[in-house]
Design a protein that fits this description.
The protein is α+β, with helices and mostly antiparallel strands and about 425 residues long. About 40% of the residues lie in helices and about 20% in strands. The chain is built from 15 helices and 16 strands. It has an eight-stranded mixed sheet with strand order 1-5-6-11-10-9-7-8, with helices on both faces. Helix 12 links the parallel strand 12 and strand 13. Helix 5 runs parallel beside helix 9. The chain binds histidyl-adenosine monophosphate (HAM). The site of histidyl-adenosine monophosphate has 27 residues, from strand 6, strand 10, strand 11 and helix 11.
Length: about 425
């Protein structure tokens, strides 16, 4: 048995993963992001210093341990900290700014596994480091929206501003005052949050706390002018791009590094907390906090398993990863040898070809060809060996044609290009 909260990604699922990776790469090309991959294992202190010791992700969920060299390390719970470390470590500050990076890979949180929540899960993420302009926030929000909305999902962006080091302390004072007055009515966890991380009381999932938060002071009323202007601009850009959003004071995010804009991506009607498809925000202090020069940044990340679950329930069409055009079937040792060579030739020419050379029964081979949904099978048996021909079988109609072995490549090229013209074969 595998560990709780860890899942195998089986061959039958791969087409969804390929679909998402391809789409992420397409978005990266369109919007000018470069790929970065940082190690899965980092110094644990990287995450405590960035995500924050009082967050659930660090205090309860981090896979941290001391390695053989006595170093305290951790499996990354998210991608932003590693990317920021790398930006500093590799002097990316000296490149033209902003630096736009994307990544995808597994993340680890020792949370209670349930639908949509795993201990190993995958994220893809986009980060823009080195630019404070609100247009960056709006572009990233648009990307996160388009990624799903263009596929037909009804997407809602829930957006908020969490202020900055100037205005947030004032707001936290007011909020803490409000929470202290209702402390006895808060759930147990929120009574602790009130002391350690009062913002998180705002997004508590307990019904009782949610009701009490309706009257809570709102951060938007306490933003400094800079944060307010920034937020208004982000919203104006989103209006311009016709991205639907909802102002939501509960979006405070579960990581400490955020400043100003914060957003989450939901499918409409599924805004339970563990159902966020993704989330992001500005983190203008993080580079400096991790030892770099003060550098603004903004980014988002999305959970890939959650996206796949939504694709499935919404019947989003995803083409199979392996859809061979041709199948080669053989009968007899000499035919098998000839087919082995033909197979290599066709692969070199760029065809996707399936085979089962270890099988001897023609019936078994053609059954497999049918299962794979192949349009044409190329068959060489004893008769074809003697005649120097190949039997081409249209797997749909069952029609067969005898073609001279030496002309097979021209023949297949014509046959398949006609298929493409008729829109029957994916190019
Ligand atoms: P996050 O909101 O913690 O943000 O995670 C982003 C997304 O990862 C979530 O919306 C969800 O889809 C997925 N996710 C998180 N935890 C789990 C889990 N246990 N099981 C399955 N999926 C999960 C971040 O991680 C930030 N680094 C995002 C960011 C990038 N902010 C700025 N740049």
């Amino acid at each position: 048995m595998n560990l709780r909260g860890m899942k195998d990604i089986l061959p039958s699922e791969q087409r969804y993963w390929d679909f998402i990776f391809n789409r992420v790469q397409q978005f990266a090309r369109d919007y000018g992001f470069q790929r970065i991959e940082t190690p899965i294992l980092e110094a644990a202190s990287l995450f405590t210093r960035s995500v924050g010791t009082e967050t659930d992700i660090i205090s309860k969920e981090m896979y941290a341990f001391v390695d053989q060299g006595g170093e305290k390390v951790a499996l990354r719970p998210e991608g932003t900290a590693g990317v920021t470390r790398s930006y500093i470590e590799h002097g990316m500050l000296n490149q033209p700014q902003p630096v736009k990076l994307f990544y995808y890979g597994p993340m680890f949180r020792h949370d209670r596994p349930q639908a949509g929540r795993q201990r190993q899960f995958w994220q893809y993420g986009f980060e823009i480091i080195g630019e404070q302009n609100a247009v960056m926030d709006a572009q990233l929000i648009t990307m996160s929206y388009k990624f799903y909305a263009e596929l037909g999902l009804a997407i809602q962006i829930e957006i908020n501003s969490v202020g900055c080091q100037q205005c947030r302390p004032g707001y936290l004072k007011v909020l803490t005052g409000y929470l202290k007055n209702i402390k006895k009515d808060l759930c147990e966890a929120c009574q602790v949050r009130l002391l350690k991380n009062p913002l998180r009381v705002l997004d508590c999932s307990e019904k009782g706390c949610q009701d009490l938060m309706v009257g809570a002071p709102q951060i938007l009323d306490h933003l400094c002018n800079e944060c307010k202007d920034h937020f208004v601009l982000v919203l104006e850009y989103l209006d311009e791009l016709e991205v639907k959003y909802n102002l939501n004071a509960k979006i405070v995010r579960g990581l400490d590094y955020y400043t100003k804009t914060a957003w989450e991506i939901f499918e409409l009607g599924r805004d339970g907390q563990q159902e966020a498809l993704g989330g992001g925000g500005r983190y203008d202090s993080l580079v400096q906090q991790l030892g770099g020069r003060a550098t603004p940044a903004v980014g988002f990340a999305c959970g890939i398993e959650r996206a796949i679950a939504r694709f499935k329930t919404n019947d989003i069409a995803v083409s199979p990863v392996y859809a061979p055009q041709l199948y080669i079937a053989q009968l007899g040792l000499e035919a098998r040898k000839k087919c082995l060579r033909l197979y290599e030739t066709l692969l070199r020419k760029g065809y996707t070809v399936a085979e089962s050379f270890s099988k001897s029964s023609l019936k078994d081979q053609l059954e497999l060809a049918n299962k794979l949904g192949v349009k044409y099978s190329l068959i060489i048996g004893q008769k074809e060996m003697v005649d120097g021909t190949v039997l081409i079988r249209d797997m749909e109609s069952g029609n067969q044609e005898v073609v001279d072995f030496n002309k097979i490549q021209d023949y297949m090229a014509k046959l398949l290009s006609a298929e493409v013209r008729n829109g029957r074969v994916d190019d």
